[in-house]
Specification:
Length: 151
């Protein structure tokens, strides 16, 4: 195509500039999606946490657009306080882990439940079992050898 006037050159230069901007935007979107691939599918809270973690690399507006969440929702999540239930669960998780380690990994959910109840917590054995699974804790029991069999 032959260019005779400066106007045609500037129109082409503008189109090239616009296409370059689109390519950069798509490359940025691809970079974000590559990083989030390990997290998919994910809850809104996980997506918000991802945005928080990567806001130094990409704009919050862009991340929210790519992850399909609202900016207002992200900022509300960021400023929200921890619920009383979440605080209680965090405290109980620490206590369960401590009691498990303090007893050399031998106590399971029944004994840890009893210890927690002695400390004044109202908690079920099932909840303690769930928390132990969540923490990856599993009690082991040493088998006692019968002395009569040894003789």
């Amino acid at each position: 195509m032959r260019m005779n006037s400066k106007g045609e050159k500037s129109v082409l230069a503008d189109k090239i500039h616009e296409l370059n901007k689109q390519v950069l935007a798509k490359e940025e979107e691809l970079a974000v999606l590559k990083k989030t691939r390990a997290y998919l599918p994910q809850s809104k809270a996980q997506r918000f946490q991802f945005i928080e973690d990567h806001s130094s690399e990409f704009t919050v507006e862009r991340l929210c657009s790519i992850l399909e969440v609202s900016r207002s929702g992200f900022y509300k999540w960021r400023s929200a306080e921890v619920s009383p239930q979440a605080k209680r669960k965090a405290l109980l998780l620490k206590r369960v882990a401590y009691l498990f380690e303090a007893n050399h990994g031998q106590y399971g959910s029944p004994k840890i439940t009893l210890l927690l109840r002695e400390e004044g917590y109202i908690i079920s054995e099932r909840t303690v079992g769930k928390y132990m699974r969540e923490l990856g804790l599993r009690a082991y029991y040493a088998k006692q050898v019968d002395k009569k069999l040894e003789e």
